[in-house]
Amino acid sequence: MSIDARTVFEALESSGKEGIGVITLALETGYSQSDLRRFFKNHKQYCVPLNGETKYKLSQFTETLGSVDKMVAEIEGQKANDRVYRAFGYGLIAGLFIANIGTFVGLLF
């Protein structure tokens, strides 16, 4: 399941300095606890664990300074870059294959 970063960040922002428990966050957002923990693991720079990773709060020490809009924009930009790199890689492989298909066909006959 893909988690909407804005939903999680807004819930964390509303919890303030005290943070919010993973169980409570799961109930608030409708995402499973395991999905939320995976999200936190993938976005450590935005989410600070409290009480041995049972609670989380927004990090105030990032370049985005706790701004939900900036955090979401940064994550979306990273996803777009990943898609571009992946498409370039597939295109490169396909191009190399197509350029050398005559060699492969010649080996078969």
SSE class: mainly alpha
| Percent helix | 55-70%
Oligomer: single chain
Strand proportion, as a percent range, falls in 5-15%
Q: How far from one another are the termini? A: 48 Å
Number of helices: 5
Organism: Glaciecola siphonariae
Protein name: Transcriptional regulator
Transmembrane segments: 87-108
Keywords: Membrane, Transmembrane, Transmembrane helix
Offer a concise description of the structure.
By secondary structure, the protein is mostly helical.
Question: Your description of this structure?
Answer:
This protein is mostly helical. Helices cover 63% and strands 9% of the residues. The chain has helices at residues 5-15, 22-29, 33-42, 68-99, 101-108, and strands at residues 20-21, 47-50, 55-58. It has a 3-stranded antiparallel sheet. The longest helix is centred in the last third of the chain and has 32 residues, at 68-99. It is elongated and about 70 Å long.
Question: Helix and strand layout, with pairings?
Answer:
Elements: H1 5-15, E1 20-21, H2 22-29, H3 33-42, E2 47-50, E3 55-58, H4 68-99, H5 101-108
Helix pairs in contact: 1-4
